[in-house]
Amino acid sequence: MIVKDVLLCASNQVAHANQLNQHTTKLEAQLLLQHALQVDRAWLIAHEYDELPDKYYLLFEALLNRRINGEPIAHIIGYREFYGLRLKVTHDTLIPRPDTETLVEAALTKIPVTAHLNILDLGTGTGAIALAIAHNRLQSNVVASDISQQALNVAIENATNLTIQNVQFIASDWFLGLSHQQFDVIVSNPPYIEADDIHLHQGDLRFEPLSALASGRDGLDDIRRITYSAPNYLNPNGWLMFEHGYNQAQYVAEIMAENGFSQISHIKDLAEILRVTIGQLSKL
Ligand code: GLN
Fold it and tell me: What DSSP string describes 230-250?
């Protein structure tokens, strides 16, 4: 078969098996074939009318079958692009999502390029948020924490591979493992899904650590915990920013207001959903 037909056929199969739209699965088929052939996207496009040798077709088919069985694309190819960075992803981390780029952008608006600020990313996982901020704000220093040492190992490997040096990694249950450092901006994409949400049993979420996804009955347990302690770790006028669920913006705003934050506002993700809430500490 020629490359173009292989991709089309694979895209249809993945769309059908996982109930995804063709736009998504076309990209997924390309990523799988790139991985099987160890080529980049430009090569694939330039060679779309080439005949695919059987040997490579078999390699590709093995990867395709894993995807058809629901395994996340990021686990099959071992990485995910996030904010222009290629991040290693394993079963120990959440798979970075485009929604979370909204949180990175929100943080960058509060960190001038020339300022020397201290930033904290709680629950860093692959290091996605911390590394994206550090890479774009070289004068600032980022501390990235995670309760999971396995996740931190992945984040450290990502920092090393990307030669990003203005990040320190710390094993910590939210703030508990931090010394009394003060930060200018605290960001987090904590677990925020309701414990009994059926989505936890669907799609990629089935393959990701539950501890990175679910947070109590209303999904807000960790956001409450973090917001309660954040004032002790923020400089006066420092910012706290969360990614949260599609229906949680108002609750997150209330939790922030109850804990001394003001200037609270929301930011929409690419799907026009209020995905990020930010607040500034009013401290004398
Ligand atoms: N955004 C993810 C989802 O809904 C959840 C990530 C999280 O809980 N932080 O699929």
Answer: GGGGEEEEEEEEEE--TT-HH
Nearest atom, ligand 1, residue 245 CA: 4
Whether the Cβ atoms of residue 214 and residue 194 lie closer than 8 Å to each other: yes
Mutate to test the pocket of ligand 1, among 126, 189, 213 (most ligand atoms within 8 A of CB): 213
Cα–Cα dist 23/41, whole Å: 16
Q: Tokens representing 158? A: 């990502």
What is the spatial distance between Cα 110 and Cα 281, in angstroms, rounded to a whole number? 13
Q: Where would I find the H helices in 69-148?
A: 73-77, 101-109, 128-136
How far apart are alpha carbons 113 and 93 in whole angstroms?
29
Ligand 1, atom 10: closest residue by C-alpha: 205
Residue whose C-alpha is closest to residue 15's, from 4, 25, 5:
25
- Both structure tokens of 270: 């690419």
Q: Find residue 274's DSSP bridge partners.
A: 268
Tokens of 171: 């094993």
| Location of structure tokens 């979370």 | 100
160 near 212, Cβ under 8 Å? no
Helix (H, G, I), strand (E, B) or coil at 170: strand
Give the closest residue to 72 by CA, choosing from 31, 121, 122, 128: 31
Tell me the pTM.
Answer: 0.95
pLDDT digits (tens, 9 = 90+) for 220-279: 999 999 999 999 999 999 999 999 999 999 999 999 999 999 999 999 999 999 999 999
Nearest to 129, CA basis, from 82, 73, 177:
82
Q: Which atom of ligand 1 is nearest to the CA of 192?
A: 8
Q: Which residues pair with 242 in a beta bridge?
A: 188, 277
Non-local CB neighbours of 66 within 8 Å, separated by 6+ positions: 76
Q: Which residue type occupies 250? A: Q
**Tokens 């943080």, residue?**
107
82-281 under CATH 3.40.50.150, yes or no: yes
